[in-house]
Design a protein that fits this description.
The structure is a single chain. Helices cover about 5% and strands about 45% of the residues. The chain is globular and about 50 Å long. The chain has one domain (about 5-130): Jelly Rolls (Sandwich). With about 130 residues, the protein is mainly beta. The strands form three sheets. It has a five-stranded antiparallel beta sheet, with no helix packed on it. It has a five-stranded antiparallel beta sheet with strand order 8-7-10-5-12. It has a two-stranded antiparallel sheet with strand order 2-3. A hairpin with a 3-residue loop joins strand 2 and strand 3. Bound molecules: thymidine-5'-diphosphate. Thymidine-5'-diphosphate binds near residues 40, 49, 50 and 117. Thymidine-5'-diphosphate binds near residues 36, 49, 52 and 117.
Length: about 130
């Protein structure tokens, strides 16, 4: 069975009066070893990012601020939508999912990635992606 995307409910430690801390730990609440962390910010809300898939890379994405909406599509064309609207939620994205991403103005996307950056791991052509059935 191939892997599927899912929401990871991360623990919020704290209280509304003191504030919160949330923790990501590899092979504990994150289902892989983390080789790379990156973040994106200041994305205008009329911009759609993503529009690619990865051959090998797995990711967990967290909206540490704002709201981030995902449409994920597998190589059979099955689409699933996810909304990250809280910093205690993570979205696990397996390899071979085409993603489209929309951001609220104030969104900061934090990505925990299973591999170092490698442009050769990207599939940026949608027809090629669907051809990989
Ligand atoms: P990309 O993954 O295409 O971002 P998005 O899907 O959000 O549009 O990356 C955008 C650019 O940044 C692209 O030129 C590759 C570069 N980049 C790196 O150099 N290193 C990285 O770790 C990442 C994620 C991107």
């Amino acid at each position: 069975m191939s892997k599927k995307p899912y929401i990871i409910n991360l623990k919020s430690i704290g209280s509304s009066s003191l504030g919160y801390i949330t923790v990501a730990e590899q092979k504990k609440n994150i289902p892989f070893e983390i080789k790379r962390v990156y973040w994106t910010y200041f994305t205008p809300n009329d911009v759609e990012r993503g529009n690619h898939a990865h051959k090998k890379l797995e990711q967990v994405i967290i909206a540490v601020s704002g709201i981030i909406k995902f449409t994920l599509e597998d190589s059979s064309g099955n689409k699933t939508k996810f909304v990250l609207d809280s910093p205690d939620k993570g979205l696990y994205i397996p390899n071979m999912y085409w993603r489209k991403i929309k951001f609220s103005h104030n969104a900061v996307l934090l990505c925990l990635a299973s591999e170092f950056y490698d442009e050769n791991d990207y599939i940026r052509n949608y027809a090629n992606f669907l051809g990989k059935l």
